[in-house]
Design brief:
CATH topology: Translation Initiation Factor IF3
CATH architecture: 2-Layer Sandwich
CATH class: Alpha Beta
Oligomer: single chain
Strand order of the largest sheet: 1-2-4-3
Shape: globular
Number of strands: 6
Structural class: alpha+beta
Strand content: 25-35%
Largest sheet: 4 strands, mixed
Mean pLDDT: 80
Length: about 130
């Protein structure tokens, strides 16, 4: 894994990590979940180019729920664009074939989704 560069602008900014599909493809499902949660616990907003599978997204939410604590980790806010595909039918969704094409994940206490549709995710991200 490449070395991360730490940057402190002294103004309480929010770090956004944009992760390529290629990097995520190199990880197992649990590695992806831990990678995402580690970033969010540090207060980062994580944007995944290719999103997660429905099973991975469900597991991310499950693991997040076990780690929420009143004095510490407040959980995640997650929004995804649907994949545009002609085979995006009912059967494909049931079989888990309908993966998201982009996913935005951030700390629940710092990100508020204002609007989401098939072409736009609008959110307010506040510094701690």
């Amino acid at each position: 894994m490449p070395e991360q560069v730490k940057h402190d602008d002294g103004e309480g900014g929010v770090q956004i990590d944009m992760i390529s599909a290629g990097r995520m493809d190199e990880m197992t499902s649990m590695e992806k979940i831990h990678f995402i949660l580690d970033g969010v616990r540090e207060g980062k907003v994580v944007i995944l180019e290719a999103g997660l599978s429905p099973d991975e997204e469900a597991k991310l939410i499950e693991v997040t729920m076990t780690e929420i604590s009143p004095d510490g980790f407040s959980g995640i806010e997650i929004e995804s664009y649907p994949k545009e595909s002609p085979k995006s039918g009912f059967l494909d969704r049931i079989l888990g074939e309908d993966e998201s094409k982009m996913t935005v994940i951030g700390p629940a206490n710092q990100i508020e989704t204002l609007h989401k549709d098939s072409e736009l995710i609008s959110a307010v991200v506040s510094a701690r």
